[in-house]
Specification:
With about 120 residues, the chain is mostly beta strands. It contains no helices and 10 strands. Strands 1-2-3-10-5-8 form a 6-stranded antiparallel sheet, with no helix packed on it. Strands 4-9-6-7 form a 4-stranded antiparallel sheet, with no helix packed on it.
């Protein structure tokens, strides 16, 4: 089972360009839990999607228009939201900003070799 190192340093941890004005950096993970930092350029869109994972998102900076199951709210620095498993969700960022996403269980599709324990 894959997991991150115990200590990760911002200046030494890869920042992945995932396209569409978004970048992603892993903050730590194992099969049960994952935290990810996401940068949005001004006007970037996290298109609506759904997954089996519970998700909590914290807004570090910027303004985000979050849509969860058809309900849209504007979130700013210090705000957060809970996205239940299989809920349709997405966000647009008119200002540019940063999010911290946490997932349980971890998003296997974000890390090669990550799988649930046997």
């Amino acid at each position: 089972m894959s997991q991150s190192e115990h200590f990760l340093f911002a200046d030494k941890t890869e920042i992945e360009d995932i396209g569409g004005g978004l970048k992603r950096q892993m903050l730590g993970y194992n099969h049960e839990l994952m935290a990810v930092k996401i940068w949005f350029e001004k006007g970037a869109i996290g298109y609506n999607h759904a997954h089996r994972h519970s998700q909590v998102t914290y807004v570090v900076e910027g303004e985000f228009h979050f849509n969860i199951d058809g309900v849209t709210q504007i979130l700013k620095a210090g705000d957060s939201c809970l996205i239940p498993p299989f809920a349709d969700h997405g966000a647009t960022c008119p200002t540019g900003g940063i999010l911290i996403d946490t997932f349980s269980p971890a998003r296997e599709d974000f890390v090669e070799g990550l799988s649930a324990p046997e």
